[in-house]
Amino acid sequence: MKKIILLLFTTLAFHNIHAQEIKTLTYFQNDTLKLDLDLYLPKKKANEKTPLIIFAFGGGFSGGERTSEKDFGLFMAKNGYAVASISYSLYMKGKDFGCKGTLTEKIKAIQIGVSDMWQATSFLIKSADQYNLDTSKFFISGISAGAEIGFHASFWDYKLMNLYQNNLAPDFKYAGFIGGSGAIMDINLISKEKAIPMLLAHGNNDETVPYNAGSHRSCPTNASGWLILFGSYAVYNHMTDLHKNIELITFCGGGHEFSGYLFHEGQQYVLDFANNVLKGKKFESHLIIPSQKKSSGNYLFCE
Hints:
The strands form two sheets. The protein has a nine-stranded mixed β-sheet, sandwiched between helices. A hairpin with a 4-residue loop joins strand 1 and strand 2. Helix content is 30%, strand content 24%. Helix 3 crosses helix 5 (145-155). By secondary structure, it is α/β, with parallel strands linked by helices. It starts with a helix and ends in a 13-residue tail after the last strand. It is globular and about 50 Å long. The chain has eight helices and twelve strands. InterPro entries: AB_hydrolase_fold, BD-FAE-like_dom, GDXG_lipolytic_enzyme. Residues 1-19 form the signal peptide. This is BD-FAE-like domain-containing protein. GO terms for molecular function: hydrolase activity.
């Protein structure tokens, strides 16, 4: 009996050491829209501000929930990072985000999501003292559509693309980007001056979001919803040409089902990446993981 009581006490003490708070906060509201975020906070350390990872879920801008990656938020909070998992406008709900959709509507969906992300970032900067956040150590992350938000929020011009009145400071820059199966519309937006450290994961057989340069949803060029995107492998090559910090995990033969890997099985990769960025380490790596599916495309590293 004494052993059982001792074990229970030890377990409770361990969890108390790693205790976290989860706060649901409204970061934007007007007459027609209310957007919340879940803020996962680690145990506060004296005289030390907390780095933050802002996360956007996937779902084709038509579905998904900010609570879907709760385990990721708890894992990072246990390891000293705050995580803000945001809701954003699902503009494509009830609309076609595929090949029969409209290009302008696709771009608008991304722009709205990015503007929401910027609003969340602005809110968290203003709330930094209240929640002990280090505004110089804000990372951005996402899965699929959320990763597309992350890419464009990192490199689009705030003043040109923001749909709301409030804007981030001209010199604001995210500390790094963590993306699962994401892509960007214009790779040239990632310049030597604007580049930030990245951790990307992608399946090279992804037919939804291209792994390299290609069309969204693999649409033919004559489709009304045709949209060219530059995926993780294209970005990896671009970043290596710029001699900037980049890590890519490729699932040879894998499709879009690997989009959530970094936030599920690969959480340790995210933690290591963020720690390395904050320590100022230089890195460039390409981890290749075989899957059970046959790889397509001319990628010698997958043969």
